[in-house]
Amino acid sequence: MRPSGRNRDEMRSISIETGIVKHAAGSCLIRCGDTHVICTASLEERVPPWLRNSGLGWVTAEYGMLPGATSSRNRREATAGKQSGRTQEIQRLIGRSLRAGVDRPALGERQITVDCDVIQADGGTRCASITGGWVALALAVRSLMNAGEIKTNPLTSPILAVSCGIYGGQPVLDLDYAEDSVAGTDANFVMTGEKRLVEVQGSAEGATFARDELLALLDLAEIGCDRLAAAQQAALAG
User: pTM for the whole thing?
Assistant: First the structure.
């Protein structure tokens, strides 16, 4: 039995509320169970120096946790004067993942920065950030198209992410913290809406895992991404 009482292939409750930040080109609050992340997308009519005059747009991301997001206070990284290795790794993952769903020539020479701020953490914050970040990105692109700044939609596919793992000897979908903290195997799957893989992060936390277990986790991830895609579509249709 999972601590939450969920079935092995059952996601936590998912909701995505859009338009929560007035000044952002796109914004949403994504809730995956007790993990809540605010995602905002900001537009800039410039690109990093190495992309000038290339005709290519750029999508990047920043990630952070509010001090009260977990049971013990997280010190603000700005106070420490540097980002942790974990923060840098996660925000690079978010940026890579979102770029996989963007036709950069169609975006033109402009940058969209997706900021993901975790206001409450209960496992799966990077996955929620990617899933919600794509909604914020899509809203920002919609604003560009409505303004006539771009003619062709540069988004080629939704991008989604979900965690899976081996808990209690069984493959399970969408780990919360109670499971993630003791799971024998922990994996994150980033996919397109067509279920093509963008990135897979998997590691044996307490025990090695077999090929068939990896495939079982992939099957669960596809189930989870179907559910997330439906939530994204509902949010953007609202």
Answer: 0.96
